[in-house]
Amino acid sequence: MVEQTAGRLSRRGPAVDRSGQRPGNRQFADAVYETLVDFSDQRQLTLELAYYPPYHSKYNRVERCWGILENHWNGALLDSIPDTLEWAKTMRWCGVRPKVHLLERDYPTGVRIAPRLFLPIAARLHRSALLPKWSLVIYPRPR
Fold first, then answer.
1. Calpha distance 115→41 (Å, rounded)
2. Are strands 8-12 and 46-52 parallel, antiparallel or unpaired?
3. If DSSP states are collapsed to H, E and C, what string results for the chain?
4. Which CA distances in Å does 24 have to 7, 27, 102, 112, 142?
5. Which of 79, 71, 69, 76 is nearest to 100 (CA)?
6. Per-residue pLDDT tens for 32-90?
């Protein structure tokens, strides 16, 4: 859902896939929420997150793209990074070829936020009364 106010974007509603989220990933989710709260404040945007229920990857476009890629390389021997990248470049999804490039930077893991530091962030997460597990809204802090 996207709403505009006076010619300016005021609300953005991304769909979020939680299929890979397990209890052990709680720290990751906390770091994501912290980033989203900061983004909401900086851009003065209301963010509405609508989560996909577990095991519903058919609605997630990224998961669908991965499935098409798996079908495309259908058992090909991917024994090097260049081969893998070339196979990915030749697939098509909805008639479009993807832009493929290798990211060679560190991907930090184990990012944690102490529970006492997360409390102010958690207070900014407004869960839906109707669907508290699947929908939440983050309102920007007024300037």
1. 21
2. parallel
3. CEEEECCEEEEECCEEECCCCCHHHHHHHHHHHHHHHHHHHHHCCEEEEEEECCCCHHHCHHHHHHHHHHHHHCCCCCCCHHHHHHHHHHCCECCECCCCCCCCCCCCCCCCCCHHHHHHHHCCEEECCCCCCCEEEECCCCC
4. 42, 8, 28, 11, 34
5. 69
6. 888 899 999 999 999 998 877 766 666 777 778 888 888 998 888 889 999 999 999 99
Q: Decide: 52 and 19 in contact? Cβ < 8 Å.
A: yes
Question: Looking up tokens 């010619």, which residue turns up?
Answer: 7
Residue 56 C-beta-side C-alpha neighbours within 13 Å: 10
8, β-bridge pairs: 5
Whether the pLDDT of residue 7 is over 80: the answer is no
The tokens for 41 are 């404040």
Residue 33 sits at the vertex; the CA angle it makes with 27 and 38, to the nearest 5 degrees, is 130
